[in-house]
Design brief:
The protein has twelve helices and 13 strands. By secondary structure, the chain is of the alpha/beta class. It has two domains: 8-184 and 222-244, NAD(P)-binding Rossmann-like Domain (Rossmann fold, 3-Layer(aba) Sandwich), CATH 3.40.50; 193-217 and 248-282 and 300-331, UDP-galactose 4-epimerase, domain 1. α1 (17-29) packs across α7 (222-235). It binds nicotinamide-adenine-dinucleotide and thymidine-5'-diphosphate (TYD). Thymidine-5'-diphosphate binds next to α6 and β8.
């Protein structure tokens, strides 16, 4: 028996990468759950990500901004549970301008928390990131590790986490926070490293490796993260934080070579470019706490990477539209990478 039984779940950011995978996962896993997505459809949100669900009676989509208290109240009153994924999520964009990161990630979260209080929400899952701990030169960060965010993105996520925690302490709002490592899988917007490199390699374009390429990330398959988040929703302790990771620690260079190798493309596509400003060298978290709750990652890294590559190979139409037609993609790409590739 679980500690908690969600019935109707508000998923903010459900048209983005992890959000849309979580929507699918919930509808598939629990036939009694209903899902309501609130998403602004920014450059990173895509209604196509939820296309095949739109006729389901258990699924509702509302286009709207988490910073708008009226629209937030109008959806909050219909649910008992919140899984809050909506965010500005790309480090490189936060280096160009952090304004939307501050307003969506911190203020938008505040609007959601206040509305959740008003409507007596029973569980509020705050989706965060291992990046709030900053670069970890050695060892692992557990959930008590000091926050030392080094990018405007991670600083805004740390602000979001503190706001969520303050609502659990001050107002007894039943908040639980998850901090996962880098995710990969289908529907990831092609500005993040893995989908950027797959799609560029498919087009025989150079892959921009920042600095020496020896930075380390722990890669979690998105379905493992979805399972962990659901597990924490059912079994997690209110007020607690749970790190989620898979122990798949790789340097960017090793990962880049795996992608090229899987696609049968030459390593000469690797292009070393100027390093990201403030680039975190290594992320590493301890996941003992979530494992104690009974969750473990189930997917092998090598197989999930192959599946992810295959998904981008068979969904050329999905990413082709973004790369060729989306102004925001093109503008970001030409501004950020102009001197690089
Ligand atoms: P994403 O950028 O793919 O999707 C974000 C979604 O939020 C989009 O659908 C967008 O339209 C929506 N959104 C943005 N601003 C909004 C607003 N003001 N109101 C309503 N909707 C808004 O992000 P993702 O990679 O799916 O990440 C989801 C969450 O997980 C984020 O909170 C992120 O910080 C966290 N996270 C991501 C990773 C990762 O590797 N992708 C790792 C750890 C944590
Ligand atoms: P990213 O997918 O942006 O995730 P995060 O910065 O949140 O970890 O980047 C993953 C790693 O890949 C990170 O160390 C930065 C590096 N990277 C490149 O070397 N080149 C690129 O073009 C991108 C987007 C990322």
């Amino acid at each position: 028996m679980s500690n908690y039984t969600p019935k109707k779940v508000l998923i903010t950011g459900g048209a983005g990468f992890i959000g849309c995978n979580f929507v699918r996962y919930l509808l598939k896993t629990d036939p009694d759950i209903e899902v309501l997505v609130l998403d602004l459809l920014t450059y990173a949100g895509n209604e196509e990500n939820l296309e095949e669900l739109k006729d389901s009676k258990r699924f509702t989509f509302v286009k709207g901004d988490i910073r708008d208290p009226e629209i937030v109240d109008s959806v909050m009153k219909k649910v008992d549970t919140v899984a809050h994924f909506a965010a500005e999520s790309h480090v490189d964009r936060s280096i160009l301008s952090a304004q939307d990161f501050i307003s969506t990630n911190i203020y938008g979260t505040y609007v959601l928390l206040q509305s959740a209080l008003k409507h007596k929400i029973k569980r509020f899952i705050n989706i965060s990131t291992d990046e709030v701990y900053g670069s970890i030169p050695e060892g692992e960060a557990d959930e008590t590790f000091p926050l030392k965010p080094s990018s405007p993105y991670s600083a805004s996520k740390a602000g979001q986490d503190q706001m969520a925690y303050s609502h659990s302490v001050t107002f007894n709002l039943p908040v639980i926070t998850t901090r996962s490592t880098n995710n990969f899988g289908p529907y990831q917007y092609p500005e993040k490293m893995i989908p950027l490199f797959i799609t560029r390699a498919l087009e025989n374009k150079p892959l921009p490796v920042y600095g020496d390429g020896l930075q380390i990330r722990d890669w979690t398959y998105v379905e493992d993260n979805c399972e962990a988040i659901f597990h924490v929703l059912l079994e997690g302790k209110i007020g607690e934080i749970y790190n989620i990771g898979s122990g798949n620690q790789l340097t960017n260079l090793v990962l880049t070579k795996k992608i090229l190798n899987a696609l049968g493309k030459p390593e000469t596509l690797i292009t070393y470019v100027e390093d990201r400003k403030g680039h975190d060298r290594r992320y590493s978290v301890s996941c003992k706490k979530v494992k104690k709750l009974g969750w473990n990652p189930r997917h092998s890294f090598e197989e999930s990477l192959q599946q992810t590559i295959a998904w981008y190979q068979t969904h050329q139409n999905w990413w082709g539209k973004i790369i060729q037609k989306q102004e925001s993609y093109q503008e970001f790409f030409s501004t950020y990478y102009k001197t690089k590739v």
